[in-house]
Amino acid sequence: MSESAILEVNNLYHTYMEKTPLEYKALAGINLQVKKGECVAVIGHTGSGKSTLIQHFNGLMRPQRGEVLVDGQNLSDPKLDVKALRRKVGLVFQNPEDQIFEKLIGDDIAYGPLKMGLPLKEVRDRVKWAMELVGLSFEELKDRVTYALSGGQKRKVALAGVLALKPEILVLDEPTAGLDPFSRQELLDRIALLNKQEKMTVIFVSHNMEEVAYLAQRIYVLADGKNLIDGTPREIFGNTEILRRHHIAAPQTVEILAHLKQRGYSVDLKAFERESAAKEIVSILQPFRR
Amino acid sequence: MAGFEFELSRNITIGQYLPTGSLVHRLDPRVKLLSFTILVIAMAICDTYVGNIIALAFAICLFYISRIPISYGLSGVKPAIPFILILAVLQLMFYNKVASGGTVLVDHGFILITSDSIRLVIVSALRFIEIIFLSSVLTLSTSTTQITHGIESLLRPLKYVKFPVHEFALIITIAIRFVPTFAMEMEKMMKAQASRGAEFGTGAWWRIIQRTKDVFPIIIPLFNVAMARAEDLVLAMEARCYTPGNERSIYTKYKAQNKDYIAILFCILFASLLLLFPFPY
After folding, report:
1. Contact criterion met (CB below 8 Å) for A24 and A92
2. How far does B128 lie from chain A, in Å, by closest CA?
3. Shortest Cα distance from B5 to chain A (angstroms)?
4. How far apart are CA A286 and CA A166, in angstroms?
5. A20–B196 C-beta distance less than 8 A
6. Helices B165-195 & B144-155, crossing angle to 10 degrees?
7. Do B192 and A83 touch (CB under 8 A)?
8. Where would I find the ABC transporter domain in this sequence (chain A) (predicted)?
9. Any idea what the Cα angle at residue B212 is, between residues B207 and B213, rounded to 5°?
10. Average of per-residue pLDDT across A273-282
11. Whose CA is closest to A160, among A187, A197, A192?
12. Which has the closest alpha carbon to A205: A233, A246, A163, A177?
């Protein structure tokens, strides 16, 4: 195990419906390493194996071939304490608001901690902590009914339900899919906060390159069950060659900069973060001022 | 079987269709449904060892003809094993009045086991397996749309006694169509709840209340999802101008061909063999 990697995947394979005519190879030799405190994005087209991969992180699926190590624990170990693992790795599924089942918001978030057998006082503290982390007022909302919430708020409740387990690693499957732009940005900011302030390791799957560029420190690109390439957003989005070769969609800013470059303006293609891109554009406009 | 605890959909063979393009797949669905009914009736009546072994062999042959792996049939039998066993015990204990013929093997208090009751037990188990195999072949080789069209067209004469044939067929299609969908939905829900500490089926079996409570986190969201899906379905149907009770023309017309006549003739002959031939055992 390499140093300081909290999560490591070595040559992982998974085949659905193995040995039947409907056999489908979802993972075909994935390698991945995530360091403690990192925020990593996993991108790839539909069917590239992203969802299958992240279900290996908290033991919902066990490796068929290859290995998955979480904090030094091998997930192939039959004696593994799965409950402890799932507390350590919090997995938030796509459309997590579907999983809300209690009548009151507070009760639903308390489900995980209660299942852990924590004392009531501790459960209450955790619910409060989790709700405030996602930006829901504990006093105001804990006794509200769950079905009267908006989509964005429901998703926050579901996220809080996982956070209440105090995971060290937070894994999110398309966290902002189907949200309106405002809720989307708010949720992204909350996830960034969890990563920076609470020092949580965050791994997320996304199809939205704007949010990948905004959140991720490192990106893994998956295709056909294999990882093609990984690197920082600047290394991936800033390299037109890589983008073209692997058919990766890029954030709008990258495309704007590329167009400007084509027209002969001297811009730095790697400076695609919103602020840096704005500076590049302003620097082009500079001579025209007055 | 580590890692398969949540893979529900692989255990559900109802509504699964396995296109292999075999002869059985290409038969007219009406013919398949009729043959299926005839064969099931014959198997249910035939009560000899030899007859049932022949019927079982026939069912296994069907898997080969339709090029479907026999493992599909076996995975259908697996969940039925407890029922078969319970049924066997009950028959052994209480059916001695009905099957009192043959030689007495055990006569101990109220337990009376005769060679006839043994035969009843074994034959019922064989019948069970035969019928499961047969229905597996039917559903695996016939898509759900074909099955409904077949049912609708076979039931059409009932229209004259004001039986809502089309609605009935539609209900069946929707029900069958959504079995795998809900299995997947449930799988996802189990995984999501397990991710936040839920456990299923781990408590001792006598703690019924606890174990019932354990399924609330799955059942309640599943209900919500089902309702939402039903609403979507209604919208989708209305958007295509579905009006209940309207006269509707049919897109697929079935016309029986020679192979269909041969198939049904063969099934009738086989069924009469099972019913009429005096098998020695």
Report:
1. no
2. 24
3. 8
4. 49
5. no
6. 150
7. no
8. 7-249
9. 100
10. 85
11. A187
12. A177
∠ CA A247-A253-A258, rounded to 5°: 65
Among candidate residues A63, A76, A66, the one with its CA nearest the CA of residue A11: A66
User: Would you state the pLDDT for residue A155?
Assistant: 92
Measured from the Cβ of residue B209, the count of other Cβ atoms closer than 10 Å reads: 9
Specify the number of domains making up chain A. Answer: 1
* Residue A26: inside a domain: no
Q: Please check whether residue B175 touches A, CB under 8 A.
A: no
Q: Do the Cβ atoms of A257 and A264 come closer than 8 Å? A: no
- The band of A173, judged by pLDDT with boundaries at 50, 70 and 90, is very high
Q: What is the per-residue pLDDT for A3?
A: 57
Tell if the CB–CB gap between A55 and B216 is shorter than 8 Å. Answer: no
| Under 8 Å between Cβ of A131 and A81 | no
- The phi and psi torsions of A52 (rounded to 5 degrees) equal -60, -40
In a domain, A233, yes or no: no
Look up tokens 């509707």; give the residue: B248
Q: How many CB atoms lie within 10 A of CB A90?
A: 25
Question: Which two three-digit tokens encode residue B24?
Answer: 């059985």
Q: What residues in chain B have per-residue pLDDT under 70?
A: 1-15, 96-102, 109, 201-205
- Tokens standing for A124? 């209450």
User: What is the pLDDT, as a whole number, of residue B203?
Assistant: 65
pLDDT, position B1? 33
- Phi, psi at A31, each rounded to 5°: -125, 135
Instruction: Note whether A171 and A91 are within 8 A (CB).
Output: yes
Nearest to A96 among B10, B192, B225 (CB): B192
Counting beta carbons within 10 angstroms of the beta carbon of residue B278, is it exposed (0 to 12), middle (13 to 18) or buried (19 or more)?
exposed
Q: Is residue A87 part of a domain?
A: no
Please indicate if any CB of chain A lies within 8 Å of the CB of B15.
no
The shortest CB-CB distance from A161 to any of B20, B71, B196 is to: B196
Q: Are A225 and A30 in contact (CB under 8 A)?
A: yes
Structural domain includes residue A34: no
Fill in the DSSP letter of residue B142.
Answer: S
Strand, helix or coil for residue B234: helix
Nearest CA in chain B to A76: B2
In chain B, positions 46-75, which contact chain A (CB-CB < 8 Å)?
69, 71-72
Interval A36-59: pLDDT, tens = 999 999 998 888 889 899 999 998
A53-111 pLDDT, tens digit per residue, is 999 999 888 898 899 999 888 988 888 888 889 999 999 998 888 889 889 999 999 99
**Beta bridge mates, B107:** B112
Chain A, 16-35: which have a CB under 8 Å from a chain B CB?
16-17, 19-22
Give the DSSP H or E segment for A261.
helix A252-262
Q: Above 60 in pLDDT, residue A161?
A: yes
Burial B88-107, CB ≥16 within 10 A → b, else e: beebbeebbeebeeeeeeee
Question: Are A83 and B197 inside 8 Å of each other by CB?
Answer: yes
For residue range A162-171, what is the model confidence (pLDDT) as tens digits?
A: 999 999 999 9
Q: Cα–Cα distance between B35 and A134 in angstroms, integer?
A: 61
Whole-structure pTM value: 0.75
Three-class DSSP category at A64: coil
Q: How many CB atoms lie within 10 A of CB B13?
A: 20
